[in-house]
Design brief:
- There is one protein chain.
- The protein has a 4-stranded antiparallel β-sheet with strand order 1-2-3-4.
- A hairpin with a 4-residue loop joins strand 1 (6-17) and strand 2 (22-31).
- The longest helix has 15 residues, at 56-70.
- The chain is flat.
- It has a single domain (6-70), classed as Roll (Transcriptional Co-activator pc4, Chain A).
- The chain is built from 1 helix and 4 strands.
- With 72 residues, the protein is of the alpha+beta class.
- The protein has one helix spanning 56-70; strands at residues 6-17, 22-31, 37-44, 47-54.
């Protein structure tokens, strides 16, 4: 089994903090040396939990959907 590694290339925002060390963050993360993806997930310190990683096209589609939603 190959080794899994990641690098947080850029932290964009912390969306929430529960006060007990769990945060919901938006970051650009490179997985296994690949092109960074927009990543939204919960963290506890440096421990990552389930989340979603979006490529450029998916991130753009999310941006457009949120833009439409906020202009309603």
């Amino acid at each position: 089994m190959s080794e899994f590694n990641y690098e947080i290339v850029r932290h964009l925002a912390t969306l929430s903090d529960d006060g007990y060390g769990h945060t919901l963050q938006v970051n650009f993360i490179s997985y296994n040396g690949g092109k960074p993806k927009l990543d939204i997930r919960r963290w506890q310190g440096d421990r990552m939990f389930k989340g979603v990683a979006l490529n450029d096209e998916e991130a753009e589609a999310l941006y457009k959907a949120l833009e439409e939603w906020t202009n309603v």
